[in-house]
Design a protein that fits this description.
The complex is a heterotrimer of chains A (97), B (173) and C (260).
Chain A lengths: L1 H29 L9 H22 L7 H28 L1
Chain B lengths: L1 H24 L1 H8 L4 H26 L3 H31 L8 H32 L6 H27 L2
Helix pairs in contact in B: 1-6, 3-4, 3-6, 4-5, 5-6
Chain C lengths: L11 H24 L12 H25 L3 H13 L5 H31 L5 H17 L2 H16 L7 H15 L17 H28 L19 H9 L1
Helix pairs in contact in C: 1-2, 1-3, 1-8, 2-4, 2-5, 3-4, 4-5, 4-6, 6-7, 7-8
Classes of the chains: A mainly alpha (97), B mainly alpha (173), C mainly alpha (260).
Chain lengths: 97, 173, 260
């Protein structure tokens, strides 16, 4: 039991790190011959990937998975609120520019 | 503790929102300044902090099954990975300041230094929290699973806030 | 007509202090936001001419509002007194109470009275050179916003006391709210560097988010102080819970819980 749980934590860490490394690839593929350029697609995917990581951290590391259902809903609601807030502010800022 | 997690993440969402809004206004200036950051270093930072989170999650599991020595080892490992993160962060700051990118030089770096610094304060508090955790695990009569989990929850919050800062400051275009 | 029972209760002094606290925070909000209009703060980027016209347009409000503060600002001591009382009611060392009291007593000078003196000096002497008026304007707002850090330690002291307390004077989540408040106080410090943008003294980060959090914090602690007074039994052990409005348990159980 104990070692299965530990294995699960290790897998979670590997997944989180892999997503982090994937940012390198996103960043590289978005370059225009080595020069950085603005990209809404990169911005949105970076934000969404980060929120996926946040949700994994909450579910697995912070053990929301086994917590009362209310906390599950609440944390999911929070992740959704963050997504709306961040993407909304980014788009509003762009539109107002 | 969950109250803190939720409240603090809303405050950070507000900070991030302000940053993204300003970014949208001056996209090219932000992009030019952002290119001074080393994404590789950011990735390394993030993986170190994720590893510390992993270690503290292991510590909670070990404490729950009564293996307090293992739990204590993992708690110390957490502080170790946190230390790696802190050192990398300071190295990066020194590097940026030497390159002329300071808090007051450009708008992007205002936000870069603000977000990384406020996070760093959370990290420093985190070291105190890990100290409490180690002390809890060391004394037979002090062990309290609820406190152990509260300490771990705080540390994970420091971790996931960094995950967001990393994406927003280093990667966002 | 029956006398309200709280008048005879041994808690009436506490209620008096609590009422004064509510009165003070309302006065504070009315004076700063409505009468003097010093909050939200004026533009940090004003030149000499801008500051002179700012003082001219705020002249009457500043004089009336600050007169209220100079007469009644001392009421701020009542909330401090109640909070110190709450820490003394906890199971923690008295040192926490003394530290809190001293930090906030000192903090009131840069964080609250300085702006009143500087703004009044600016408004009362409109014939002074614009440069000097601008200096007073800067001094007023910078002392008010730039010194929020002094509240950081105060909040952390209260937080530590709440988290260590075994008398259940405050719920633990409020301890963590103190931490949130302390951490937003720090972010006002960059106001020293900038005269525009999110980190200036009227910026989104340095002012709006901070005031929003502080507003929630103040509302919450006033409410929690109220429930502390209601629960106060003037003993030294854990504070009893309020009796439930609709008793769900049998009376014997309730007695047993109260005694434990």
């Amino acid at each position: 039991m104990f070692s299965t749980l530990n294995k699960r934590l290790l897998v979670v860490w590997v997944v989180l790190s892999a997503i982090t490394v994937a940012y390198l690839w996103i960043d590289h593929s978005a370059d225009d011959n080595g020069a950085a350029r603005a990209s809404t697609a990169v911005t949105l995917s970076a934000i969404l990937l980060a929120l996926v990581k946040v949700r994994i951290i909450m579910r697995e590391f912070m053990e929301v998975r086994d917590a009362p259902r209310r906390l599950c809903w609440l944390t999911d609601l929070w992740v959704a609120l963050m997504a709306v807030g961040l993407i909304g502010m980014y788009l509003v800022g762009k539109a107002a520019a | 503790m969950w109250f803190f997690v939720l409240f603090e993440s809303m405050i950070f969402t507000a900070y991030f929102g302000v940053y993204l809004y300003h970014r949208g206004q001056h996209e090219t200036a932000f992009l030019a300044a952002q290119s001074h950051l080393d994404l590789g270093l950011g990735v390394l930072d993030t993986i170190a902090l994720l590893a510390s989170s992993w270690a503290v999650a292991r510590s909670v599991q070990a404490a729950r099954s009564g293996r307090y020595d293992a739990a204590r080892r993992d708690a110390l490992l957490t502080a170790g990975f946190g230390g790696v993160f802190a050192v990398l962060k300071v190295v990066e700051w020194v590097h940026q300041v030497h390159a002329g990118n300071t808090f007051t030089s450009q708008e992007f770096f205002q936000f870069y230094f603000f977000l990384t610094a406020i996070h760093f304060i959370h990290l420093l508090i985190g070291f105190v929290v890990i100290g409490v955790l180690v002390r809890q695990l060391s004394g037979v009569e002090r062990r309290n699973q609820e406190t152990v989990e509260t300490c771990a929850t705080y540390w994970h919050t420091v971790d996931f806030l960094w995950v967001l800062i990393f994406a927003l400051v280093y990667v966002v275009r | 007509m029956r006398r309200p029972t709280w008048l005879d209760s041994p808690k009436r002094e506490l209620w008096l202090a609590w009422g004064a606290t509510v009165g003070f925070y309302n006065l504070y909000a009315v004076v700063f936001f409505l009468i003097t209009r010093t909050q939200p703060p004026g533009q940090p980027s004003y030149g000499d001419a801008g500051v002179v016209s700012w003082f001219a347009s705020h002249h009457d409000g500043l004089l009336v509002g600050m007169a209220f503060i100079f007469a009644l600002g001392g009421l701020s001591s009542t909330s401090l007194a109640l909070i110190t009382y709450s820490i003394r009611r906890m199971s923690v060392s008295r040192a926490y109470a003394y530290a809190y009291l001293l930090v906030y007593a000192v903090a009131a000078i840069p964080g609250f009275l300085f702006i009143c003196v500087a703004m009044t000096a600016g408004a009362m002497r409109p014939d002074r050179s614009p440069e000097l008026q601008r200096w007073l304007y800067d001094l007023g707002f910078l002392s008010f916003s730039g010194t929020m850090g002094v509240f950081l330690i105060g909040s952390l002291v209260w937080m530590t006391a709440i988290l260590l307390d075994k008398n259940r004077v405050f719920p633990k989540w409020f301890g963590y709210l103190n931490l949130c408040n302390a951490l937003t106080e720090v972010v006002v410090a960059p106001a020293w560097f900038f005269d525009r943008g999110a980190f200036a003294w009227n910026g989104l980060v340095a002012w709006w988010i901070n005031v929003f959090v502080f507003g929630i914090y103040t509302g919450v602690f006033i409410t929690l102080l109220r429930s502390m007074i209601r629960r106060e039994d003037f003993g030294t052990g854990p504070l009893p819970d309020l009796p439930p409005r609709k008793p769900r348990r049998s009376p014997e159980n309730a007695v047993a819980t109260a005694a434990s």
